[in-house]
Amino acid sequence: MKSENIVxxxxxxxxxxxxxxxxxxxxAWENPTPCTDWNxxxxxVHVVSGEVQVANLLESEIFxxxxxxxxxxxxxxxxxxxxxxLKAIGLVQQTPLDTxxxxxxxxxxxxxxxxxxxxxxxVHGWDLSQALSVPYETEEETAEWxxxxxxxxxxxxxxxxxxxxxxxxxxxxxxxxxxxxLGRTLEP
Length: 188
Description:
- There is one protein chain.
- By secondary structure, the chain is mainly alpha-helical.
- 55% of the residues lie in helices and 2% in strands.
- Helix 2 (40-59) packs antiparallel against helix 4 (110-132) and helix 4 packs across helix 5.
């Protein structure tokens, strides 16, 4: 896939997450999500801190342990997400995908980092939609690309604490196979 298409997938995944985030009512932040250890607020903190990390890695070229406290969201979580997302997208659009980014545990290029960020936005957008009982649709193009990204890293996924164990997909669509690989079952 061409680099501008990967950047576009990233941008669209961020926008899709924001679309679901815009549905969070003020009294729902403590509601549970399919990520059993996280409520809605913790899930959103995780995604926002990921976009902060993208900006830090590209702008300052340093890895900073993410702030995973609710403080990162400030008084208006939607505005915080929007500003963080726009900054990260702007920096990604200016940076070649083969750019090395600092990370303490792995050799990382921007393209690999975007694979993780697209995944977080897509999967946690779905998680958030499930917690809110609102519709969420994953673009098949994005799901196909993410399958190509994660299948070669299956051993990493199986040893990771980031996702649940794979489950049987409900159908043969790319999105059903992707979510199953990452331990989630889409409703048929």
